[in-house]
Amino acid sequence: MNLDPYDRGMIKNSPYVKKRVIKGNIIAILDSIIEKRGLNLITPHSRVAKKGEIHELIATEEAEASPGKIVNNVAYVCFFEVSEGGVIVRGDEVYISGKFIGKIAGFDDTHMPNHQNIVLYTDKKKTGLELKINLDERVLFKKK
């Protein structure tokens, strides 16, 4: 029996009243676009990002991208190392060096436990190279 409250539809609104900003630094810049990726966004709306962990940022323009959905049209942005951990939640805003990049759409577990695919929604998907980001730039995840 599945006891996850998100799967069971028990959580209607975000329970996160306040949370700290999650911080990280870019360790690898990506430049790839895939049209039929098939990322399976997991049902939970949040994931913990612990200090020292490495995760991947992936962008999509698919407006329907949300927990429980499949995301196909993606641009690979970067890998980052968490410097100040916390909880990343669907809808959080993502910034790289102060520039708004997009909002968290959901999470894909394809490469777990190695790293989490963190999928963000943006009006115009761009790769890390297209965004002109650099190694060691600061990544922030903020409650909207």
Q: Give the rounded overall mean pLDDT.
A: 94
**Unreliable parts:** none
The number of domains is 1
- N-to-C SSE series? EEEEEEEEEEHE
The rounded Rg comes to: 14 Å
How is the largest sheet built, in terms of strand order? 1-6-4-10-9-8-11
* Terminal CA distance: 34 Å
Percent helix range: under 10%
How many beta-strand segments? 11
Note the main sheet: 7 strands, mixed, barrel
Task: Tell me about this structure.
This protein is mostly beta strands and 144 residues long. Helix content is 3%, strand content 47%. The chain has one helix at residues 128-131; strands spanning 22-34, 39-40, 46-49, 54-60, 70-71, 74-84, 86-89, 93-96, 99-108, 117-121, 138-142. Strands 1-6-4-10-9-8-11 form a seven-stranded mixed beta barrel. Strands 2-5 form a two-stranded antiparallel ribbon. Strands 3-7 form a two-stranded antiparallel sheet. Strand 9 (99-108) and strand 10 form a beta hairpin. The longest helix is centred in the last third of the chain and has 4 residues, at 128-131. The N and C termini lie far apart (34 Å).
Key features?
144 residues; mainly beta; seven-stranded mixed β-barrel; 11 strands
Question: How are the secondary structure elements laid out?
Answer:
Elements (H helix, E strand, L loop, with lengths): L21 E13 L4 E2 L5 E4 L4 E7 L9 E2 L2 E11 L1 E4 L3 E4 L2 E10 L8 E5 L6 H4 L6 E5 L2
Parallel strand pairs: 4-10
Antiparallel strand pairs: 1-6, 1-11, 2-5, 3-7, 4-6, 8-9, 8-11, 9-10
Summarize the entry for a quick read.
The protein is mostly beta strands. 3% of the residues lie in helices and 47% in strands.
